[in-house]
Amino acid sequence: MCAGAIDGTHIPIVAASECHAKYVNRKGYHSIIMQDVVDCKYLYRDVVIGWPGSVHEARVFSNSSIFKKGNEGKLFPDDLTVELQGVEMSPFIIADPAYPLLPWVLKSFQRNENQPKRERVFNYRLSRARMTVENTCGRRKGRFIRFRKCVDMEVPALVNVVLASCILHNICEIQNNDFLPQWEESERAEEAVVGIDNVNIVECDAHNIREALADYFS
């Protein structure tokens, strides 16, 4: 039922000519944010690019079309619902702690010293599955090495260039073009635990789904 993984990364840029302060991220450099959803075949399925680096990933997510469709129940077909451990669930995407826990967005249990084994097993499996989104980004950068460095380009033009690289990357993956291991660059997302305000979501469904999966894996 896992349909993909979502992640947020920062694309380094030269200081913007206007309102440059808002492009400074938490680490102190200028960037724009890229939110991407990928599948198990290293294909980009949804991409949002262009928010200033100072904006929280949670805000980018809450203003994206995938968030709106997910909350309206329009992201996946209705006939894909299944029952697991007595809990009804639809397809979902997996995320890191920066994202909210929703019926269609699952993230790890909060870590603590006395964490039950079933929760640790779930977290491990989710973490392993999430490597797909990091690997996809690494493969795209491997093909287009310009994105490994700070890009000196106006933001609107850069957005189009990054989108084009995602499309070309998908074409390469679909056509099974050669990819040399030495091209790959691992990409890790910043894991900031933040919330999304004013989201009228009943979280019990999401918790029940995560608990059912934890029981299944254990």
Automatic annotation (TrEMBL):
Keyword RNA-binding in record: no
GO cellular component: nucleus
Location relative to the cell: Nucleus
InterPro entries, alphabetized: HARBI1-like, HARBI1_dom
Annotated protein name in UniProt: Uncharacterized protein
Entry similarity comment: Belongs to the HARBI1 family.
Lineage: superkingdom: Eukaryota
GO molecular function, one term: metal ion binding
Cofactor field: a divalent metal cation
Hydrolase keyword on record: yes
Range of residues in the leader sequence: none
Keyword line: Hydrolase, Metal-binding, Nuclease, Nucleus
